[in-house]
Fold this protein.
Amino acid sequence: MKTEAQIRDVVLRGLQRIAPEADFEKVDPGEPLREALDIDSFDFLNFLVGLHDGLGVEVPESDYGKLGSLDAILKYLSSRVG
Amino acid sequence: MADFRLPSLGADMQSAIMVRWNVHPGDRVKRGDIVAEVETDKGLVALEVFEDGIVDRILVHEEAKIPVGTVLATIRSNGAAPVAAAAAAPPALTETKAPTQPLTESAAETPARPPVQAVSERVRASPSARQLARDLGIDLHRVQGSGPGGAIQRSDVERAAEAAKAAPKPPSPPSGEPPAQPLPKPAVERPVEPLPAPGGERLVEPAAAVPASERRVASDFQAGMRRAIAAAMARSNRDIPHYYLETHIDMSRALRWLESENQKRSIRERLLPAVALLKAVARALGEVPQLNGYWLDDRHQVQEAIHIGFAIALRQGGLVTPAIHHVDVKTLDELMVSLGDLITRTRAGQLRGSELTDATITVTNLGDLGVEAVHGVIYPPQVALVGFGKILERPWAENGLLGVRPVLAATLAGDHRATDGRIGAQFLTALNRILQEPEHL
């Protein structure tokens, strides 16, 4: 069972890995991340692998649409993990 | 005896800096072995040898800037005897310390000084420090090095520049000897003085080759890369008569098939649509091979092997198009591994020379960015560029019925000297058909 804080930690670390120069203090949590962080499908897949490693959650392709913004990602993962 | 030359690693490349040799004279090498690493504006590139043999002489030393085509080393075939080095032959240049030809009187004065102050010797400094010193007009002989062995690092040059600004006298070290006279350039430097490059002498350094403490400001690297890209694109647009074709491909079958394939795979093995597109391009080239090759020496040279250059964006801007080799022969899973490895190494600036030179065609996939269609510029000497835009839901009519399908705009830019629109159209038609039968990919 992971807490919200742990989930957030795994997510931010994963995002930092694929967008090393991004400043997550400044990212609007409601903003679509793809453009905000300039990440492509390869980066996104690596991020999902990180979520799997860190939280044990495997995100199916059909759920990709639910992971648009930071808030959306956290919400999705809470429901899967919590 | 074979000459091992610096290859042109891109249409825009003029020169490179030798960073590191991985072999010594006498070492046995096999085809494909990485023998040296050079800095280019695309990052650090590993150079491979193309034949088996024994390294005979190394002719270019580390930190030298060399134009494309320079003979870097000679390699004799296995079984041949080493060539006796003539007395006046260029020295084997793996070290940069002592010059091997007599210099002027100043050489006699050096022993008492710390190594970095031995003005008659080649100054030990990192490429980044050298470039910065060139830019700022700082004489490296006057800079105190704080790196290993007294080597001058970027921070040392920066400090020297600050001191020069602050004080009227030259910023150098305690011994305060007279400014460097017109020193004879040490013989070791002579063979590798850069030839006047058409685009100007300024050399660009990639961030990846330099330790973090010396990392050049990203903007300088980007500026250099943009200049190189600009030169290549301008030349391509000028020299190559382009024709453009576009088609729309219903991707519903391909995406559905990929999804079912991915359900059988763990997330680590998941296939991206990009690899399906790459494989489809390779198969379409099997049917229309005229687009796979080069325009060189005023003629069309179709290539048998299919090495697809894949446009990869660097995070801070800039584009590199390294090749994935033998795409037609690899499975989708193998392509996924190759692509992933290539993207990672491209962004880390760790490509091999063959990856930068071997592409027989280039694919640019801007779908992730939301661009609908791409009309690109061909990379010479290739004769075609395939573009893929974003897959968008669109109304689609089939068999008299209207529906909504995920549609991909695929474009082809062709070199009109090599092929005409009819060939291009055949290619796109084949590509479309192949993507309707994804299970055969």
Q: What stands out?
A: The helical segments of chain B are 127-136, 154-166, 218-239, 252-263, 273-287, 332-347, 353-357, 421-435. Residues 11 and 232 of chain B are 6 Å apart (CA to CA). Residues 85-121, 168-216 of chain B have pLDDT under 50 and may be disordered. The radius of gyration of chain B is 26 Å.
